[in-house]
């Protein structure tokens, strides 16, 4: 028997921990998350192994349920709306059918017209409960409330509660009637991943006697977006979150594959994620003229932190070991757009040389399939085998480009690039 404050107890500590772990398995996941959050208030991040022991979990399981990871993720997402108006107003326009971005560019809307409001609403109950939302913006006299939601699920009750509390927070007295006016903001949800659930509408109705007020909650499903959509719809601040779609893919892989196949699949997923990251960063460079200079840093910072999130929670540091990215927004990440510009200049020079290199290597198939087109259109039409081999050799040996960068630049499957490099 053990003692607590000199009193004998009937259960030993190790037995108590075993019983605690068994009962924990029967608890709903939200309860488990709350308990982990409580422990994280008691122990620092470098003491997470203590929480792991108490919860009877591996470090990997703990990371997936950790409130610290969720808090970091929430902060990253909210920052996308704390950018320049040129960056986020296009998303407001897309959601609510406004034209603010164009008005801002032509000067009829100014930064003074745009105010980020408090995202906390205090309910004056006995406990003074605090409700925290994601984004609340006032543009002129219009209020907008936006929630990021990782899982695709029904949000109508939450949005109704948030909307009413935010309306109470921003109430005013009508000077003509002397009555309080509670102005519910226009609302939207940005969903980050598809969990294939049968989700009801997020809009809701408020009924009072014979009156019915319909609140339409707009939505964007980011997994349905492409970089083309980002350009055409001016959704510039959503560019970094396109890579978030991989989280569902990774978790499905962990659920449905055995250990050996899972490791191989994860290596493939890392290649796909890094390729998508490079596409995202290249796209950010191409929209530079549309946004402010500091917005590029926000995009690149968010992408770097999302890589860090994936690596920490799902890949056990494998991405960091590859040395593809320094994981804490270092000069390598921060200067990525400069690297892209440098690559562009080098590749423009390399286009003609690559085609000529294909000739010099004597690749007859390449000559037949498109050397003349390759001269005119460069890498974009240099997909034919002979030209590709010449381009890959030049980029790999002379420009010292990584296989993923070559695959991205040539728009070729990375496995083809790897095969060509291995034969050099």
Describe the protein in words.
The protein is α+β, with helices and mostly antiparallel strands and 424 residues long. The protein has four domains: 55 residues, no CATH class; 108 residues, no CATH class; 111 residues; 75 residues, no CATH class. The chain is built from 19 helices and 13 strands. The chain has a five-stranded mixed sheet, sandwiched between helices. A two-stranded antiparallel sheet has the order 1-2. Strand 1 and strand 2 form a beta hairpin. Helix 15 crosses helix 17. The chain starts with a strand and ends with a helix.
Structural class, from helix and strand content? Answer: alpha+beta
Strand proportion, as a percent range, falls in 5-15%
Count of the domains: 4
Q: Roughly how many Å apart are the termini?
A: 70 Å
Helical fraction equals: 40-55%
Rg over alpha carbons: 27 Å
Taking pLDDT < 50 over at least 5 consecutive residues as the criterion, the unreliable ranges are 327-334, 365-383
Summary keywords:
single chain; 424 residues; alpha+beta; 4 domains; five-stranded mixed β-sheet; two-stranded antiparallel sheet; 19 helices; 55% helix
Topology:
Layout: E1 3-4, E2 7-8, H1 13-25, H2 29-42, H3 48-55, H4 59-65, H5 67-79, H6 85-96, H7 100-106, E3 114-116, E4 120-122, E5 130-132, E6 135-139, E7 142-149, H8 156-169, E8 172-173, E9 180-181, E10 186-191, E11 204-208, E12 211-215, E13 217-221, H9 227-232, H10 246-256, H11 259-286, H12 293-313, H13 318-322, H14 331-334, H15 336-360, H16 364-377, H17 385-397, H18 403-410, H19 414-423
Helix pairs in contact: 5-12, 6-7, 10-11, 11-12, 11-15, 11-18, 15-16, 15-17, 16-17, 18-19
């Amino acid at each position: 028997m053990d003692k607590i404050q000199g009193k004998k107890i009937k259960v030993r500590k190790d037995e108590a921990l075993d019983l605690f772990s068994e009962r924990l398995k029967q608890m709903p996941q939200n309860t488990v998350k709350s308990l982990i959050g409580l422990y994280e208030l008691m122990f620092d991040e470098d003491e997470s192994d203590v929480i792991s022991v108490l919860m009877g979990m591996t470090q990997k399981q703990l990371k997936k349920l950790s409130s610290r990871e969720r808090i970091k993720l929430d902060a990253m997402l909210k920052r996308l709306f704390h950018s320049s108006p040129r960056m986020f107003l296009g998303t407001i326009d897309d959601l609510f059918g406004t034209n603010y971005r164009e008005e801002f560019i032509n000067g009829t809307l100014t930064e003074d017209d745009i105010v980020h409001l408090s995202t906390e609403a205090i309910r004056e109950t006995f406990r003074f409960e605090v409700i925290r939302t994601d984004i609340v913006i006032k543009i002129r006299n219009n209020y907008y409330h936006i929630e990021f939601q990782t899982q695709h699920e029904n949000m109508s009750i939450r949005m109704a509660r948030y909307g009413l509390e935010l309306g109470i927070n921003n109430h005013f007295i009508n000077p003509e009637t002397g009555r309080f006016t509670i102005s519910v903001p226009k609302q939207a949800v940005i969903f980050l991943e598809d969990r294939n659930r049968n989700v009801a509408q997020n809009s809701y109705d408020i009924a009072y006697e014979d009156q019915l007020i319909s609140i339409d909650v707009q939505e964007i499903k980011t997994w349905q977006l492409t970089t083309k959509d980002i350009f055409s719809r001016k959704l510039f601040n959503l560019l970094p979150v396109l890579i978030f779609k991989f989280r569902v893919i990774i978790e499905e892989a962990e659920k449905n594959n055995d250990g050996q196949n899972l490791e191989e699949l994860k290596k493939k997923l890392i290649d796909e994620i890094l390729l998508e990251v490079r596409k995202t960063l290249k796209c950010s460079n191409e929209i530079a003229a549309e946004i402010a200079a500091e917005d590029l840093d926000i995009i690149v910072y968010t992408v770097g932190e999302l890589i860090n999130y994936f690596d920490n929670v799902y890949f056990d540091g494998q991405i960091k070991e590859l040395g593809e990215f320094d994981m804490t927004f270092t000069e390598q990440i921060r200067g990525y757009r400069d690297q892209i510009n440098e690559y562009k200049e080098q590749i423009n020079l390399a286009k003609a040389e690559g085609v000529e290199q294909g000739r010099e290597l004597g690749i007859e198939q390449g000559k037949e399939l498109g050397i003349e087109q390759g001269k005119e259109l460069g890498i974009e039409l240099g997909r034919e085998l002979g030209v590709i081999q010449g381009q890959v050799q030049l980029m790999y040996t002379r420009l010292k480009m990584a296989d993923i960068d070559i695959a991205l630049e040539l728009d070729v499957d990375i496995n083809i690039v790897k095969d060509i490099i291995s034969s050099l």
